[in-house]
From TrEMBL:
InterPro entries in the cross-refs: LolA/LolB/LppX, MucB/RseB_N, Sporulation_related
Keyword annotations: Lipoprotein
One Pfam assignment: MucB_RseB
Organism superkingdom: Bacteria
Annotated source species: Actinoplanes italicus
MucB/RseB N-terminal domain span: 106-230
Identification of the protein by name: Outer membrane lipoprotein-sorting protein
Length: 392
């Protein structure tokens, strides 16, 4: 239920995108009134949805911090010990990532992911797109065809006005989620409205999703996802600092450092047309593909909303247990290290059994994964008990 769908640049610039997978499954609830502190006037949920859809800052720059603690210390430790660094993957489980962003319209954008010893940049300046890796001192330059910056006409399935978008979002509301507000919030020194989404189903591991919306510019400033019965977010992505002045043009100029290896590539116009094809058609094709897989018995989905569970065909546990032994004595150091990591990961799983059979369980604060002895992978943002029911 992304109300930013018609604004592709903002969709990747603002923190909301990081929580779409969580929020999108359970849009929600009855009468909603966004109460605010005396400093801000009251706004209803419908008004806030209109605000989000109509958000169109001329420019902005800021620092975004993503932090996670998914309740998997064993796995985080294993990844952190991998040579070459579990780095970014580890921080997605328990840690943080920091990025800088600059935005001056659809054709001037820059995103810089900052590591402890490296930086990855994605820069668009008109028809030029640069992807830069400082650690390897390498980059790729893409030249976009004329007209690539123009927005595709919105398909009929997508609301064409803010009011229509709000109506469509509210029409999707059901009883699976409770929506309320906590009044006003302050994020990066700015006033914001905060909406709180809470699953009603007790089998969901998600306790709340809190979305802070800038009171003036209307873009999301912070998204927090809380596990059930916790007071600290398991996942947060938020602006630490933000400025709505239009960035200077020099922020979008890329000057390769000495000795840099740059690869030039072109983007065929046909590829852009394919990428921008009708969203409704793409969704229909994806649905047909999922149904085809389900007919083969390799994948299916049970439940809905916050308690959706995916069941897929995978290797049997006996086969997974044999992988580390098969790689013992390998002359390939990467293969040996991968085998050691696989052995360690399997060792963190908890043996479980029931009327459904037996297997091993990975249980985090926001999701559970069950690997069964008969070769099924069952996963969802639900309690282990919900997985056992699905396995049966």
């Amino acid at each position: 239920m992304s109300v930013l769908r018609s604004r592709p640049a903002l969709r990747w610039l603002v923190p909301t995108a990081a929580a779409v997978a969580v929020i999108g499954g359970g849009a929600a609830a009855g009468t909603i009134v966004a109460n605010a502190d005396p400093a801000l006037p009251e706004r209803s949920a419908a008004q806030l949805l209109v605000d989000l859809q109509s958000a169109d800052p001329k420019g902005l720059s800021g620092t975004v911090v993503q932090s996670s603690d998914l309740g998997l210390p064993g796995i985080a430790g294993l990844l952190g010990n991998v040579s070459g660094g579990g780095g970014n993957l580890t921080s997605l489980i328990a840690g943080s990532n920091t990025a800088r962003i600059w935005y001056a319209g659809e054709e001037k954008m820059r995103f810089s992911l900052l590591g402890t010893s490296n930086e990855t940049d994605v820069i668009r300046n008109g028809s030029d797109v640069w992807i830069w890796e400082s650690k390897e001192n390498t980059g790729t330059h893409f030249k976009l065809p004329a007209g690539a910056g123009e927005r595709e006409a919105a398909p009929s399935a997508v609301p064409s006005t803010p009011q229509a978008a709000a109506e469509a979002a509210l029409a999707a509301i059901d009883d699976s989620t409770k929506v309320e507000t906590t009044g006003a919030a302050e994020v990066a020194g700015r006033d914001a409205y905060e909406l709180v989404l809470s699953p009603r189903d007790t089998e969901s591991l998600v306790g709340q999703v809190r979305l802070a919306i800038d009171a003036k510019e209307h873009i999301p400033l912070r998204v927090d996802v809380y596990a059930k019965n916790t007071t600290k977010p398991a996942f947060r992505v938020a602006f630490e600092q933000i400025n709505f002045a239009v960035p200077d043009d020099q922020q979008f100029a890329f000057n390769p450092p000495p000795g840099a290896k740059i690869t030039d590539q072109s983007v065929p116009e046909d590829a852009l047309k394919e990428h921008g094809k009708d969203a409704a058609k793409a969704e229909a094709e994806a649905k047909a593909a999922r149904e085809a897989v389900a007919e083969d018995g390799d994948f299916k989905v049970v439940g809905e909303g916050w308690t959706t569970i995916a069941i897929a065909k995978g290797p049997k546990l006996g086969e997974l247990d044999a992988l580390p032994k098969a790689a013992e004595g390998s002359k390939d150091p990467e293969a040996a290290e991968a085998a050691k990591l696989a052995e360690g990961l399997l060792g963190t799983l908890t043996p479980v059994s029931g009327a459904w059979g037996s297997g091993k369980l990975l249980s985090g604060s926001l999701f559970s994964v069950l690997l069964t002895d008969d070769g099924r992978v069952i996963a969802g943002a639900v309690t282990p008990e919900a997985l056992y029911k699905a396995a049966a």
